[in-house]
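Fold this sequence, please.
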Amino acid sequence: MVTPAAVVCGIGGHVPERVVTNDELSSMLDTSDEWIRTRTGIRTRHVVEPGGSTGDLAVRASEAALRSCGRRAVDAVVLATSTPDRPCPATAPEVASRLGLNAAVAFDVAAVCAGFVYALATTSSMITSGIVDSALVVGADTFSTILAPTDRTTRAIFGDGAGALVLRKGQREERGVLGEFDLGSDGTGVDLITVPAGGSRQRSTGSAPDETETYFTMQGKPVFVEAVKRMSGSVTAVAARQGWGVADVDQFAVHQANARILAAMAENLGVPVERFARNIERVGNTVAASIPLALRDAVDGGSLSAGDRVVLSGFGGGLAWGSVGLVWPDLTPAESEENRAEGIPR
């Protein structure tokens, strides 16, 4: 019996209409355009308007992904996010319902910036085991809603957005097959990337948290070191499992956390930084949406083409990391209807 494979067949993305520039942040915080650009590589980021949510962005990106491959329905919706619309229930079932997929399998995956790769691994297993024949894998986050208003570091880095891939059952010799995965975690670093309050540990104390504990915090220097080390090792492992050398990889779609991390990874791996998909200047760190948005923009910009060897890699809170390899299929990205109407550049 031939084991089926999970094949990428559609791609889409969406970012909110509102753009926040470095100059706008500088008018509210003790920072500057130069300070932000030289430390992060970011010039602008998109943020949701009041009342907007992760689910809203996920629906728009999913619609675009389905439209790119001419599909109206899939069997499952797997949403990677750390900013769900509500603490309970998961956001994916409502996203599926809004897409008209009321009977679909639907659930969230929480692995922060590694979430999209974890969601791909989970969904790939569902397809290869015969549980479903097709699925939407969505990465969406609205980190603007959990950042401290006066924290110039986190507010400079993060933006909101969503990206999605459509997967279908196929054969292993096809382009677009999700190949070898590498996943890992290190819970000793749990406090490096966190929102301290709001979970059962804090709530069980019966005490109201300090306001600062309700916002996202990150220890930049150790996170930088861990991100470069873990993603470089994971990328190398996946390339080897695919039967490739690192130098054989045409494009690295790595989590867009910081331009310096991309440069450090390129140096670590001994490959040109130009092989790294990059849209961080325009959208910032969009967390679980980062990898699919970078893929969409790489295809649209012509740096990623059918037949290219690609490795996706993410690193985030937990600590958690993961990578996967594939040969890129022939895809035409679709913008969300809102982004097309507003003329928002990719």
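The chain has two domains: 5-176, 181-336. Residues 5-176 form a domain with the Peroxisomal Thiolase; Chain A, domain 1 fold (CATH 3.40.47.10).
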